[in-house]
Amino acid sequence: MIAQRVEVKRHAGALLHVCFKASPVIANPRYSVHFHRRLPTLANLGFNSPREALMKSVKSKNHSLPVETPHPREARLAGGVSPLIRPLVELAETAANSGRFVLEAEEVEALKLEHGVSEDELMLSLLDRAQEMARPPISKFHVGAVGLGVSGRMLLGVNIELHGMPLHHAVHAEQFVIANAVRVGEARLLRIAVSAMPCGHCRQFMTELPGVEELQITVLGGPPHRLAQLLPHRFGPEDLLPAGVGPRLLGRHDHGLKLTPGALDQLPEGLARTAIAALHHANQSYTPYSASPAGLALQCVSGSIHAGGVIESCAYNPTMNPLHTALVAATAQGMKSWDHIEHAVLVERPSSNVLHGKMYQLILEELSPGCQLHVLHAV
């Protein structure tokens, strides 16, 4: 066996690169993912346990471990990802390209069994790929996040920045995970793994989650934290809302909105489905603080539709407006460039405390010159 050195000093989770059991082939009809190559085991690398591998790595001068040289085809991995985690990277890519940024529960269970890893370890191993998919043209700081839902799904998230726009229009990776959970109907998040310590903005946003007291947050293989540890003496929903008011975030919401008579007649031909998508997400909006539900649907030149609604925060500023959540949907569904957006349909109540139309006109002109915004009223 030809040996080479691979760095493992980034974080403890890098030990996963050498801890997976051999796996000749895994195929899932949902994703058609195939693992063509057997992975080295610890025994093959001369270690009796993960702890022994870690200790020898720490004691070595250059903090490295010998690994088998990959096949030349496998050596050409985007971003220089270790071939030992190629199956997980392929799975993350497949999830991203599938239009959901989601790994279904059966896929998660198959990986855990085949590789002998825990849910936390699997989440950490997917962070590299999540970071690669981030879109931070301003900061150049790539953040990835992976959430574990009560259903067993794993949901990927990335940070998104909008060039030419004020910084508060950015979407944080943890927000992306939560918006992704809303989008696929996940009822609760149990864990969130992040590639960098969550900022105060995200910690505050997480207070809206159901079961937040039990939510575990892990950063690059470190010990799990409860939100109360990261945000002590916090301001939360209970400070603004009476006890037992309405479903929390990730619950089922229906505001009962209907388009005003003749609203669809205002639209160019071919936008009726887009308007219905915007109305659907307006009705699903989480707006316990402003009572101002709204939905935005983006239609691309290809005809694809990406929509989202409001996700409010009790602290107001961390709130995700419909453009945020629509861009999350567009990213998760494979949109590569914002200038593919041809039409945007906004549905909101004209009497709401919060209105989005004028702001969206300015933002969409910057994101996708020529995009037409259509504002429809609902009651």
Descriptive report:
- Helices cover 28% and strands 16% of the residues.
- By secondary structure, it is an alpha+beta fold.
- The strands form three sheets. The chain has a six-stranded mixed β-sheet with strand order 3-5-4-6-7-8. It has a four-stranded mixed β-sheet with strand order 10-9-11-12, with helices on both faces. A two-stranded antiparallel sheet has the order 1-2.
- Helix 7 (173-184) packs across helix 11.
- It has twelve helices and twelve strands.
- Mean pLDDT is 80; it is low at 1-84.
Describe this structure in a few short sentences.
The chain is an alpha+beta fold and 379 residues long. It has helices spanning 50-59, 72-75, 86-97, 105-115, 119-125, 127-132, 173-184, 200-206, 227-230, 272-283, 322-332, 357-367, and strands spanning 3-7, 64-68, 102-103, 144-149, 154-158, 189-194, 216-219, 225-226, 294-300, 305-309, 341-348, 372-377.
